[in-house]
Design a protein that fits this description.
The protein has 225 residues and is an alpha/beta fold. 34% of the residues lie in helices and 16% in strands. Strands 3-2-1-4-5-6-7-8 form an eight-stranded mixed sheet, sandwiched between helices. Helix 8 links the parallel strand 7 and strand 8. The protein is globular and about 50 Å long. It starts with a strand and ends with a helix.
């Protein structure tokens, strides 16, 4: 049984924990502070979810999902996450994270910033572009017509295989968006962000990114225009 660590016990973290537990994962759900304040309640009625500390989840999990505010990534235990696949499900929200020119810089994706902070981890961007309501309501078995899809991006091939399997296990079709830098294609202010669509449409939206308003901004910033 794979142990999945989820750091962040907000709405998205709770939904991911429930989906993973229902799919047969052992889930360690963590937040800053006392894990006794994680409101498992009905979420763990079927078992499989354990509230714990961030350090414990990072240490014991086989695979770790980051579902906390992006600005909190620098509180993560770097050494405990070394050598592990880390799924970045975070987004930059100035209302939560404050005004951060580094996070808003179109020359880099937020996941590349996370990867730089976790140099010995294999960071893969995923789960950030789907709302928690859709995550909760849309899981379907593989092969179901119209099954919704989730994009992922990363630089490590083996880590991407792990994350694609997780996406599939949780009830969605995985769509490979390319290297980690391409996580920019499904960050906030892109066509794909917030979309609840199948794999065909996800691929189409990713392909249209370079000619979109955001894509042109990124291209100019990166000297690609």
């Amino acid at each position: 049984m794979t142990t999945l660590g989820i750091i962040g016990a907000g709405k998205a973290g709770m939904v991911l924990a429930r989906l993973a537990a229902a799919s047969g994962y052992r889930v360690l759900l963590a937040r800053s502070g006392d894990p006794a304040f994680i409101p498992l309640g009905a979420a763990d009625r079927e078992g499989g979810i354990t509230a714990t500390t961030v350090a414990d989840a990072a240490e014991r999990a086989d695979l770790v999902v980051l579902a906390l505010p992006l600005s909190a990534h620098r509180t993560l235990p770097v050494s405990a996450l070394a050598g592990k696949t880390v799924v970045d499900a975070m987004n930059y929200w100035w209302e939560t994270d404050g005004i951060r020119p580094d996070f808003a810089d179109p020359r880099t994706s937020s996941s590349e910033i996370v990867q730089a902070f976790l140099p010995e981890s294999r960071v893969v961007k995923a789960f950030n572009h789907v709302g928690y309501h859709d995550l909760e309501d849309e899981p379907r078995p593989p092969g179901t017509p119209g099954r919704k899809a989730i994009a992922f991006a990363g630089d490590d091939a083996a880590a991407k295989v792990e994350v694609a399997q997780l996406i599939d296990d949780l009830g969605f079709d995985p769509v490979d968006a390319g290297p980690l830098a391409e996580g920019m294609r499904f960050e906030p202010n892109t066509e794909l962000f917030g979309a609840d669509v199948d794999a065909h449409e996800v691929r189409a939206m990713l392909a249209r990114f370079p000619t979109s308003a955001r894509g042109l901004v990124v291209a100019r910033a990166r000297g690609l225009a």
